[in-house]
Structure formats: structure tokens, C-alpha cells
Amino acid sequence: MNKTELIASVADEANISKTDAAEAIEATFATIEKTLKKGDEVRIIGFGSFQVADRKESVRRNPSTGKPMTVPAAKVPKFKAGKALREAVNS
To answer: Fold for domain 41-91?
Structure first.
């Protein structure tokens, strides 16, 4: 499912216009992004949590040349599915 399909599905499920659904989804994504930028966590009970993790600097091989290269340390977003979501996927 891509973003356009998600918007259409949310609009249908909530019985709202696609424009309203798009605005709600964009606002949700923007809020999650702002919260993660601040270093905070977003927890949605029954769905999962978004958080920022620190990735250490590492040495990897360039796949095209085989030469070692350093991948710098960075902050990366992570998502951990909640119990209810994991159970729904497995039922």
C-alpha cells in the first residue's frame, strides 16, 4: 500500500473526504517527525512506538569496489510494533 492508497483507505474507513484524510495523515507524520527530532518517543498503545536510536560509526565494504569505507555515526528512527499489532498480523 502506498501513501495514496492509504489516504483513500482512511477516507473510506472514517467516512471523510480524501482531502481531510490526507491532511490528517500529513499532520500525523509531521508530528511524529517533530517529536523524534526533539529526541522524544511516540507511543501509540496497541500499535507500537517510534524512537530514535544512535548508530555507531562502522567500517563497511563498498559493494562496487570492495574497498573499506567508514560509515559515520548517526541517529536513526526505529519502530517497534506493539503486542496488539503483532497479534493481529499473526492471526
So the answer is: HU Protein; Chain A (4.10.520)
